[in-house]
Design goal:
Blueprint: H1 2-15, E1 24-27, E2 30-33, E3 51-55, E4 60-63, H2 69-82, E5 87-91, H3 103-108, E6 112-116, H4 117-122, H5 130-140, E7 150-152, E8 155-160, E9 163-168, E10 181-184, E11 189-197, H6 209-220, E12 226-231, H7 239-259, H8 264-270, H9 282-303
Parallel strand pairs: 4-5, 5-6, 6-7, 11-12
Antiparallel strand pairs: 1-2, 2-3, 3-4, 8-9, 9-10, 10-11
Helix pairs in contact: 6-7, 7-9, 8-9
Bound molecules: zinc ion (ZN).
Zinc ion binds near residues 96 and 194.
GO biological process, one term: antibiotic catabolic process
Protein name: Metallo-beta-lactamase domain-containing protein
Pfam family, one: Lactamase_B
């Protein structure tokens, strides 16, 4: 009997993916878990995203809940080692599933979920997510889709314990058509979701190149000391510069090609930007970004 109990307990443990999350302090009372600079895979359990949490007197505020229920549950255990406090609010920066599939865990713990309008529009109960397809049933585990409690239309000021969070959508379309940024006023920490990438290539497929550049100017205007993006390890204020140069270079080269009447079929061969070749996910995402940039800039030209 003892053996049976032990074996079934062991199989329970085996089922949950071990994320080995280590919180890194980025500012006073502010911590992040940094994910890998790669695509979603069974080997990483979807942990290729950055999520953060802020310790307030009232409880924790989480910014992006990560790729699965188990990820969120393990993140929560790490928070409890810092303080035995509930998670009061979870803010979702945008509707890409690597950032919010932990919401179902926090909902079960009584947290209030806050996010953009696009979440309500695009996240439908029962739909199969990209994460689910790649991870499979076992790793996906108890992950499910839950609704938000509060939608941020334009901006929202959230007071939690001793901290003030200013949540806003800087532009109509940048990484997606609903990107929220969260400014932790006292600490001068700005959580920017996927409006800033470091060390790897971004994806423009759901957003806008021009909007992404505008968003970077607005981010810089906050004068934040710490800027945490959705992917990548750099968190100092210069992180926007590096990301901006990738986007600006692409805009310049694609615009030049358009002026030279380069056709859509040749554009990805023309704008290779080899100086970015050793960035992670260049092979997967760069050509597609160039194509999206081409379509966008061509459309702007047609409108003018
Ligand atoms: Zn992302």
């Amino acid at each position: 009997m003892k053996h049976i109990v032990l074996i079934s307990l062991m199989s329970l443990f085996l089922q949950a993916f071990e994320y080995n999350l280590v919180p890194k302090k980025v500012a006073e009372d502010t911590y992040c878990f940094f994910g890998k600079l790669e695509n979603i895979s069974k080997e990483n359990g979807g942990n290729m995203v950055n999520t953060c949490f802020v310790h307030t007197k009232e409880g924790f505020v989480v910014i992006d809940s990560g790729p699965t229920y188990d990820y969120a549950s393990q993140a929560y255990e790490k928070m409890q080692q810092i303080a035995k406090l509930p998670v009061k609010y979870v803010i979702t920066t945008h509707d890409h599933d690597d950032h919010w599939l932990g919401n179902s865990f926090y909902k079960s713990k009584g947290a209030l979920l806050i996010g953009p309008k696009t979440y309500e529009q695009n996240v439908v109960a029962g739909m199969e997510t990209r994460m689910q397809r790649v991870l499979g049933k076992e790793l996906y585990g108890k992950t499910s889709i839950v609704k938000l409690d509060t939608i941020v239309d334009d901006n929202l000021t959230l007071k939690a314990g001793d901290k003030v969070f200013m949540i806003s959508q800087p532009v109509k379309a940048a990484h997606t058509k609903g990107d929220l940024i969260v400014f932790l006023k006292g600490q001068k920490v700005l959580f920017v979701g996927d409006l800033v990438f470091s060390g790897r290539i971004t994806s423009l497929r759901d957003g806008s190149l021009v909007g992404s550049l505008e968003a970077l100017d607005m981010i810089d205007a906050y004068g934040a000391k710490v800027i945490v993006g959705g992917h990548g390890y750099e968190t100092d204020a210069t992180v926007t510069e590096h990301f901006r140069s990738y986007l600006q270079e692409m805009k310049k080269e694609v615009q030049y090609a358009l002026d030279e009447d380069v056709g859509m079929e040749d554009i990805t061969k023309k704008v290779t930007m080899p100086q970015y070749k050793n960035m992670k996910l260049y092979d997967v995402l760069h050509a597609r970004n160039v194509l999206d940039a081409y379509k966008e800039l061509e459309m702007i030209e047609d409108e003018e």
